[in-house]
């Protein structure tokens, strides 16, 4: 189909047909649109999009592991939905980055080695018990919510469009994590103890999230400087933890440099599982 | 699913678009009313089905008794005069 025809088809598929009796997917930016209509970014913008895509991809892979394993059926669906939202963000960012290098989202997801992944250490940390996953979600979703709000005003139109769509979804992820943090923090002594434990094992990976790297500093008014998010993040998460009766733990900070391709021991195993099928059957499709 | 589910049951009502009523969509388990609305969002509006949600604790709903079906619902049968079509327009009434 030509672009014009595709646009027309998408229009008729979306809100144009929305009615009381017909459920439609609605109109929103999809990775397929970026692949077809996107303008190839510069190498520097692509590197930045890659960092955002890698964070989302690894976190989505981690969260998807909860499917069929959550404490309740309803929570299973909730975590699965959140994982899929985040996978959608990864697909958009990786598709856009790949335009610069003539690579597809799958090339980037399945055919890079561990040291080529630029994700933060926090997203590759193991799921642990439910409380660990919730604290990781709390830390990351508050961060991504602030990040995407700013990125939605980026001078790079594609990054801004991806962020504008993602921010609504991440707003819900944030709410989900906050609701559970408060309930588990205020729950039983055992649930509060597990939340304190979760904070202790994840807090060492907080500083890395806010470290400015050349990939950010070289893209003024396009990239969001991570350090610019720190104060708002600290304020928001402190308020949630206070309501939950939890405290920021006094832990040291890990020497984490995921943006430079240096990772903790956990990423290799995650990638092995994520990539094995694509590598065993190259080019396979459903 | 290591423990038995001891969360209360909630009934979910979805309004599919403005101007329509909320319609019963199904039920779910949740620990409290706030989580029930969120679970309802995840379970019943994943495909753009709704613009508004209600949740009601199932135990708060009072329903009619199936054993009283006859006395409750058979009675209107045969009472044609409760339908507008029973009545004929009188002569001379032009705009009915």
TrEMBL record, chain B:
Q: What's the domain of life for this entry? A: Bacteria
Which InterPro entries does the record cross-reference, listed alphabetically?
A: PaaB (IPR009359), PaaB_sf (IPR038693)
Name of the protein described by the UniProt record: 1,2-phenylacetyl-CoA epoxidase subunit B
Q: Supply the source organism for this entry.
A: Glutamicibacter ectropisis
